[in-house]
Design goal:
The structure holds 3 protein chains of 3 kinds.
Chain A lengths: L7 E2 L2 E2 L11 E5 L7 E7 L2 E12 L12 E8 L14 H17 L8 E11 L4 H15 L9 E8 L2 E4 L3 H6 L2 E8 L4 E5 L2 E2 L3 H31 L5
Parallel strand pairs in A: 6-7
Antiparallel strand pairs in A: 1-2, 3-4, 4-5, 5-7, 8-9, 8-10, 10-11, 10-12
Helix pairs in contact in A: 2-4
Chain B lengths: L5 H12 L15 E5 L7 E7 L2 E12 L10 E8 L14 H16 L9 E3 L3 E13 L4 H14 L2 E2 L10 E2 L7 E8 L2 E4 L3 H6 L2 E7 L5 E7 L6 H26 L2
Parallel strand pairs in B: 4-6
Antiparallel strand pairs in B: 1-2, 2-3, 3-6, 5-6, 7-8, 9-10, 9-11, 11-12
Helix pairs in contact in B: 2-3
Chain C lengths: L7 E2 L4 E4 L4 E2 L3 E4 L2 E4 L3 E4 L4 E6 L11 E9 L3 E5 L6 E4 L21 E9 L5 E4 L12 E4 L5 H5 L4 H10 L2 E4 L4 E5 L2 H16 L6 H16 L1
Parallel strand pairs in C: 3-7, 10-12
Antiparallel strand pairs in C: 1-6, 2-5, 4-5, 6-7, 8-9, 8-11, 9-10, 11-12, 13-15, 14-15
The chains are: A alpha+beta, B alpha+beta, C alpha+beta.
Chain lengths: 240, 260, 226
């Protein structure tokens, strides 16, 4: 989509950020009572809640895998989370996002420890402002740790893109709507391996490399925030 | 899957016969209520309500659409509730179950029949265009008494909602026109004892449930009985009294939270 | 390191090297390095590096005494919920009664509470429990509360020191299941006190000197009652 708005001028973006700046992020672990693990996350204008149940016996029985647990991530946007009310219920976009998030999480969870079980992850977007799948996956990862699920890494997600010919990290609303490329990724920060990768738009090979590096850098920054949030929740009870 | 042990149910019944409850509340006492408004920026109005550990979020979205043929110059309202899987290990994803539908309809009636939204003021072009008010309720954490939490969240969201006229080029934004809200209070009955604001464990053993919405004058505006047990006439009156008394306190807290 | 607190570690955190230490529970090894695999408390005092999980469902170990809730009575066995990732099977041969085929519901029904022992955990994590042991039976009366299974050792205390304190000052019968279920029986005031005390222990489980703190709290409380 083209528009007359200048997304990038004088080294600054519409909201005053530099190309490598992330929007403000706030993460809180363990916010729900019934769910075994949970996380509330704010990222720019995004507000996301993630909850984990499990491991528990997978139902129906025919979905059980005798060798490992299955990971079911369900991403959903609340009706009131967007400008034009969204009809309740999963649409094709939500189902695709649910699938790529499930696959990313499955990579790092030690699923062989729980044959025949399911680990259910619920991601609810309460307020949306570009980059909801990145916010959702990042929150889901914290919720999994909060639930005591054994993992070999804590996945984290961030996007990069191109606006007015300039490659930038963490697209905001207008940048997502009127920009030229969008590249959301997720990594396992310890190994640096890529667990989720999607792209649409137009990038030269050089631009892609720049964008990928920016996104990985963004992921590493957010990873520190995730870890801090978890430790804060569990260490703070002891500082008396 | 999580079953409640029989001995736990027996324990609750034993306490109740002495007028006591497992969390030390009085029979007609509510848990701590917290109301927070303007929690979702995209919504025209929004609120998050906690009653004890139950957490509910409500969002108001508005759109322009056609009126119902039999009411050509009044606005339209519609309420939906989602028992999302995160709220309880027993909730599954999929089309709304009867509980969700009943919840939405009871909350809807409480608002509609008490005429809290002044729908006559929501007409844009008679017979052609009116404002549609969507009330969407998301249950986030289920620890008993969804009816009251959902109704309260819906009310708080409505009371802080603005009609998004600017987005539709119909003038400036203005507050959603409302009248005094009725407050919904739910009680449950088990083994001849009536408790108000049932906790999750109390709901597990409840034989019958009664929700009563009352207004600022103490008049009754909506009622809904649920479950397959019964109430005596005296018990119904007892529930109405508990609703009026608690309704008053909750109304005060609601007004404070929305800045009245 | 601050002596007042125990160290909390998170998944993927580097804990040591297999050259100098052995990898214990709650850890995994990659390229000669030992990492935490779960959110928990670091225990690196011996030759082993262990991480004791802070959260999560009960991980059944053969020999554990647990409190179960019967989910279903089947023709020659019952399905019991023991707060693990899977339900456990209680076979008619593992109860002290002579149960005929299809008569299981005469002895145990959905919602009944039982004290059982974990008999077997197999490769596929299929669980079996037994009631054939001293002190195992169907529970009557009292109340049950649930705590994080990871807090059970703290609630019991070294050589049962903590739980004995609680029993003494509240005059209640208490049974702490390894699976995080606790059965309490006594007068109403006593039961409330037990629940409040256990909540406190849960909150401050990681601090040192907790046993003394709890003892003082219980003593103070008794004085008020006089």
């Amino acid at each position: 989509m083209k528009s007359d708005i200048k997304l990038f001028e004088n080294g600054k973006r519409l909201d005053g950020r530099k190309p490598e700046d992330l929007r403000p992020i706030k993460i809180e672990a363990g916010v729900l009572h019934r769910a075994e693990g949970s996380c509330y996350l704010e990222w720019g204008g995004n507000k996301v809640l993630a909850a984990v149940y499990g491991p528990r016996e997978a139902v129906p029985r025919h979905t059980q895998n005798p060798l490992r647990a299955i990971v079911n991530a369900r991403y959903n946007m609340a009706a009131f989370s967007v400008d034009d009310r969204k009809r309740p219920g999963p649409d094709r976009r939500s189902r695709e996002i649910s699938k790529v998030i499930s696959e990313a999480l499955e990579n790092v969870i030690l699923v062989e420890k729980y044959p025949r079980a399911a680990i259910d992850v619920n991601i609810e977007v309460l307020d949306a402002e570009a980059g909801t799948r990145c916010a959702g996956l990042t929150a889901a990862a914290v919720a999994l740790v909060d639930a005591g699920i054994p993992m070999k890494d804590i996945p984290v997600s961030c996007a990069a893109g191109k606006i007015d010919g300039k490659v930038v990290v963490d697209l905001g609303k207008e940048e997502d709507n009127f920009g030229e490329a969008d590249l959301p990724i997720a990594i396992a920060p310890r190994s640096g391996e890529i667990l989720l990768l999607q792209m649409d738009g137009h990038l030269t090979q050089d631009e892609f490399n720049t964008a990928l590096n920016l996104a990985i850098g963004g992921c590493k920054t957010v990873s520190e925030i995730q870890k801090k949030a978890i430790l804060e929740k569990y260490q703070k009870a002891e500082v008396k | 899957m999580p079953l409640t042990a029989e001995i736990k149910k027996d324990y609750i019944v034993k306490l109740a016969k002495d007028g006591k409850r497992a969390d030390n509340r009085k029979l007609d006492e509510y848990r701590d209520i917290q109301i927070e408004v303007n929690v979702v920026s995209k919504a025209e109005g929004s609120a998050k309500v906690k009653i004890g550990k139950t957490q509910v979020i409500a969002g108001i979205k508005m759109d322009v659409g056609e009126p119902y043929p039999d009411t050509p110059d009044t606005g339209v309202m519609s309420t939906a509730a989602e028992l999302i899987p995160m709220a309880s290990p027993d909730f599954e994803s999929g089309p709304p179950r009867e509980d969700a539908i009943e919840l939405a309809r009871v909350v809807d009636r409480g608002i509609r029949e008490s005429e809290i939204i002044e729908v006559e003021k929501l007409c844009i072009e008679p017979g052609e265009k009116v404002w549609i008010v969507f009330i969407d309720i998301h249950i986030l954490d289920y620890d008993g008494n969804l009816f009251d939490a959902a109704s309260l969240a819906a009310l708080a969201a409505l009371m802080t909602a603005n009609v998004p006229a600017e987005r539709f080029e119909l003038g400036k934004d203005y507050p959603l026109p409302l009248k005094e809200p009725p407050i919904s209070c739910t009680s449950a009955k088990f083994n001849g004892v009536i408790v108000t604001d049932p906790s999750l464990d109390e709901e597990e053993i409840a034989e019958a449930r009664l929700t009563v919405a009352t207004d600022d004058k103490g008049d009754v505006r909506a009622m809904q009985k649920g479950l397959n047990g019964s109430f005596t006439v005296d018990e119904v009156k007892k529930v109405i009294k508990a609703s009026v008394d608690n309704g008053k306190k909750i109304r005060e807290q609601l007004y404070k939270s929305v800045g009245k | 390191m601050n002596k007042e607190t125990r160290e909390i570690v998170i998944p993927s955190q580097l804990l040591g090297d297999i050259k100098s230490k052995k990898a214990g529970r709650g850890t995994f090894v990659e390229k000669g390095k030992i990492y935490a695999e779960v959110l928990g408390v670091l225990n690196a005092n011996s030759d082993y590096i262990n991480v004791v999980p802070l959260k999560g469902r009960y991980d059944p170990t053969e020999g554990d005494f647990v409190i179960g809730i019967v989910m279903e009575a089947m023709s020659s066995s019952w399905l019991v919920d023991i707060n693990a990732a899977y339900p456990a099977l209680l076979h008619v041969n593992e109860v002290p009664w002579d149960v005929d085929f299809n008569e299981t519901d005469k002895y145990l029904n959905m919602g009944d509470t039982v004290m059982v022992k974990v008999l077997q955990v197999d490769q596929e994590k299929k669980l079996q429990v037994t009631m054939k042991d001293r002190n195992l039976y169907k529970v009557k009366g009292g109340n049950i509360i649930d705590v994080e299974p990871s807090k059970v050792p703290r609630i019991i205390g070294k050589k049962a020191s903590m739980i004995s304190l609680v029993k003494k000052y509240t005059r209640c019968r208490i049974f702490v299941g390894q699976n995080g279920r606790i059965w309490i029986d006594g007068d109403e005031q006593g039961v409330n006190k037990v629940i409040n005390t256990i909540n406190k222990i849960e909150e401050e489980s990681l601090s040192y000197g907790l046993t003394n703190k709890i003892e003082n709290m219980l003593k103070e409380d008794s004085k008020d009652v006089q």
